[in-house]
Design brief:
Strand order of the largest sheet: 7-6-10-3-11-12-4-13
Oligomer: single chain
CATH superfamily of the largest domain: Alkaline Phosphatase, subunit A
Strand content: 5-15%
Number of helices: 14
Structural class: alpha/beta
Bound molecules: 2-deoxy-6-O-sulfo-2-(sulfoamino)-alpha-D-glucopyranose, calcium ion
CATH architecture of the largest domain: 3-Layer(aba) Sandwich
Shape: globular
Helix content: 25-40%
Length: about 525
């Protein structure tokens, strides 16, 4: 398949008036500063909870600032909606079957393979990674890194250092990752080189433990129940079989902090371990806030629908409190870039490892190819670049070629993503992709979302659930944006079904997914 949109050498004016031509050899870029890259990726932060995408719930002025000063991608998707796989897709520019990291449970990332940070190093960049990594082997391709063991801890977290030591740091994780990132940019990097810094937050990952200073926020708010909260999953057996329901699977103790309530004893123990990381003052503030809520909860003795909706409200509040720190800390990074004079030649990217369910279909978690978790927020600010929205379909395999092209580095042929630089420059390439491929593998596993792959174009989505099930689903996203009506067997969609099956086949051939030969 032809690799579209390799750079057409169009000049990109910088905010400061300089002109940067991305494919010029380095030595010719005499008066032009190369671009730095600050890539901020959060965990489980979904577009419904980002005010530049959706004003119903969240207020995220700092995240919105990136979109206002740059671009917001309206059709941004992942290739495999889970942390480790997403990170592997992002760093290699390849789908899971090519980078070898299919799921969080069985895989270890082969750090000897090609990644964009390694290619940036070759192009003269200094590279750094701070925060969640989740790829099971130690990072390669970074001049500096400090990572969280596994999922990390919100309070007084451990970091694994480059010496392979584990060091505990006092404080709240989102602040600490930001402190370390700013410290690296200000005092630790080689200022003679352009840099690429990956800031990888744990927030908004389960179990949404907010900083003590934000605990009292949003307690007076009641959030609207999503339209699909009471979904009955008719015609969608894989959706019915999941274990990520707010009603049945969200734990009262671990997720919602109701110590003493009925729940999973293992999760209660995990929560206890999290609390025991706190110092006395943190724990006192935590208990002072949650204890009265626990008392009221016990007295109310909620059941059925009342309990279900109460869980949703508490989930929303905890998620938003955690988000407050995230938004504030992204603001700190933007302010630092301004103050340090770096904003004028730094591409800022904000995204998440996938989307998330905020009660849609009655769920939390992700994994499915349905819109809320297939979609991921993506805003970028490129000095001198386009401002506004970008509606083309983009995917997390596109970030690697984008950064390479921006750095003037060659994009290897085996990278499967497509550079977004033409879009960032305001071009409207006629041959942009018209459909996206998705493949999720982690099953059987936590939350029990069955294996599936599929294709989405701007109107339809076709999904095949396989392994211990053989079920096809087809959605007309215009008529049924909430994906409640599987029209795969509806005769009026027979032609669409054939076209989408053909499109799926073409994508599996193009990306060389071995699953095709097994079907
Ligand atoms: C943990 C969570 C799951 C979550 C996975 C994957 N359980 O196992 O709810 O789906 O991470 O998330 S927990 O009890 O440990 O919180 S991912 O974003 O890292 O892929
Ligand atoms: Ca995640």
């Amino acid at each position: 398949m032809k690799k579209v949109h390799l750079l057409t050498a169009a000049a990109l004016p910088l905010a400061g008036g300089a002109i940067f031509t991305a494919c010029q050899p380095k030595q010719q870029q005499t008066e032009q500063k190369p671009f730095n890259i600050v890539y901020i990726m959060t965990d489980d932060h979904t577009a419904q909870m980002m005010s530049c995408y959706d004003k119903r719930y969240a207020h995220t002025p700092n995240l919105d600032r990136i979109a206002e000063e740059g671009v917001l991608f309206t059709n941004s998707f992942v290739a495999n909606s889970l942390s480790g796989p997403s990170r592997a897709c992002m760093i290699t520019g390849k789908h899971s079957h090519k980078n070898g990291f299919y799921d969080n449970t069985n895989c270890k990332f082969d750090g000897s393979q090609q990644t964009f940070p390694k290619l940036l190093q070759k192009a003269g960049y200094e590279t750094a990674l701070i925060g969640k990594w989740h790829l099971e082997t130690l990072p390669t391709g970074f001049d500096h890194w400090e990572i969280l063991p596994g999922q990390g801890s919100y309070y007084n977290p451990d970091f694994i250092t480059q010496q392979n030591d584990t060091v505990q740091v006092h404080g709240y994780l989102t602040d600490i990752i930001t402190d370390k990132s700013i410290e690296w940019m200000e005092n630790q990097r080689d200022k003679n080189k352009p840099f690429c810094l990956l800031i990888h937050h744990k927030a908004q990952h389960r179990n949404w433990m907010a900083d003590t200073c934000n605990l009292r926020l949003y307690e007076d708010k009641t959030f609207p129940i999503p339209d699909t909260f009471y979904d009955d999953y008719e015609g969608r057996p894989a959706a019915a079989a999941q274990e990520m329901s707010i009603l049945k699977d969200m734990d009262l103790v671990y997720d919602l902090k109701m110590i003493g309530a009925e729940g999973n004893p293992d999760l209660a123990q995990t929560y206890d371990g999290m609390l025991s990381r706190m110092d006395e003052a943190q724990r006192a503030a935590w208990d002072a806030f949650y204890n009265p809520i626990i008392e009221d909860f016990k007295k109310a003795n909620l059941k059925g629908k009342d309990l279900y909706e109460w869980k949703f409200q508490r989930y929303m509040r905890d998620y938003l409190k955690t988000l407050k720190s995230l938004d504030d800390n992204v603001g700190r990074v933007l302010d630092y870039l301004d103050k340090a004079g770096l904003a004028e030649n730094t591409l800022v990217v904000y995204t998440s490892d996938q989307g998330f369910y905020m009660g849609e279909h009655g769920w939390f978690d992700k994994r499915f190819m349905y819109e809320e978790s297939f979609h991921t927020p993506l805003v970028m600010r490129l000095p001198g670049g386009k401002k506004g929205t970008i509606d083309q379909m983009v995917q997390n395999i596109d970030y690697a070629p984008t950064f390479l092209e921006l750095a003037g580095a060659p994009v290897p042929e085996d990278i499967q993503g497509v550079s977004l630089l033409p879009l960032l420059k305001g071009e409207n390439p006629a041959d942009w992709r018209t459909s996206l491929y998705y493949h999720f593998y982690e099953y059987p596993a936590e939350h029990m979302v069955k294996r599936h792959y599929g294709v989405r174009n701007d109107r339809y989505k076709l999904i095949h659930f396989y392994n211990d099930i053989d079920k096809w689903e087809l959605y007309d996203l215009k008529e049924d944006p909430q994906e409640l009506h599987n029209v795969y067997d509806d005769p009026s969609y027979a032609e669409v079904k054939e076209q989408m099956r053909h499109e799926l086949d073409s994508l599996q051939i193009m990306y060389d997914d071995p699953i095709r030969k097994l079907n």
